[in-house]
Amino acid sequence: MRARGKAALAAVIFTAAVLAAVNIGWWWYYSSITAYLEQQLSRRLTTVAATAALHISPRQVEALTIDNLTAYADILLYLDSLTVLDSLSEAAVLDLDFNYLVSTRQEIAADKYLLAQPNFDTLNAAAQGRPTASALYNIEGTYLKSAYAPLYDSSGEVAAIFAAEAGAGYFELLRSLRRNLIFLAVGSAAAVLVLLLFYIVYNRRLAAAEEKLFQTGSQATLGRMVAVVSHEVKNPLMIMRAAGERL
């Protein structure tokens, strides 16, 4: 019976190990695919921003910074076409204080950019001449990522910043996958606890059965011993009685 108890414990441990391995594997897969998709989106957006910045001439940048309406209209038309071609949620040009100079989102064009997107480090990098992408961020339940590229004036100095923002709809699917993995992990832990509880109950019942069997065996042995002793005591008495009758 003890061998059965050990086998049950081994089964519980094996099941727990398998479930742990499966959960670790799924979480590794989730982390890997999330990092890969974010990296690919960063590369795409950075390329879009850097390429778009090359299509805005230094003369247009200088004109835009002094509120030239013709430059504003030309650049806005270009940004609108860019958002359609590259599936962007927003394209904009910012000054070095991170104020909007022009944006495809007209309702926020008068706002300071940092109020909408807290990407200060990446904006500073673009202001220093390095195209870069922000980390993934969430606004009102939507996952977004932005990329920035410097815009130069005629002297070769950074005069403005090009910003491109795109949604990452597939991260919603990854968030759903993450929830499912959490449910799977919780369910696995619950299953292991149930198996462990079953093992504890089974082991206690097994121990009780062994104790009962031991007591039953002890009583049987004691009964046989009493019978033997009684027989051994009875035989001399019968001999003595027979001898007395003969006398």
- Main β-sheet description: 6 strands, antiparallel
Spatial gap, N to C terminus:
60 Å
CATH class categorisation of the domain at 42-175:
Alpha Beta
Q: What is the CATH homology-level superfamily of the domain at 42-175?
A: PAS domain
Helix content, binned percent: 55-70%
* Strand element count: 6
Q: List the helices and strands in order.
A: HHHEEHHEEEEH
Global shape: rod-shaped
In round numbers, the mean pLDDT is 76
Write the layout of secondary structure elements.
Elements lengths: L1 H53 L3 H8 L3 H17 L4 E5 L5 E4 L9 H4 L3 H8 L4 E2 L3 E3 L2 E11 L5 E10 L2 H77 L1
Antiparallel strand pairs: 1-2, 1-6, 3-5, 4-5, 5-6
Helix pairs in contact: 1-6, 2-3
Tell me what the structure shows.
- The protein is an alpha+beta fold and 247 residues long.
- The protein has a domain at 42-175: PAS domain (Beta-Lactamase), CATH 3.30.450.
- It has six helices and six strands; from the N terminus they run αααββααββββα.
- The protein has helices at residues 2-54, 58-65, 69-85, 113-116, 120-127, 170-246, and strands at 90-94, 100-103, 132-133, 137-139, 142-152, 158-167.
- Strands 1, 2, 3, 4, 5 and 6 form a six-stranded antiparallel β-sheet that branches.
- A hairpin with a 5-residue loop joins strand 5 and strand 6.
- The protein is rod-shaped and about 115 Å long.
- It starts with a helix and ends with a helix.
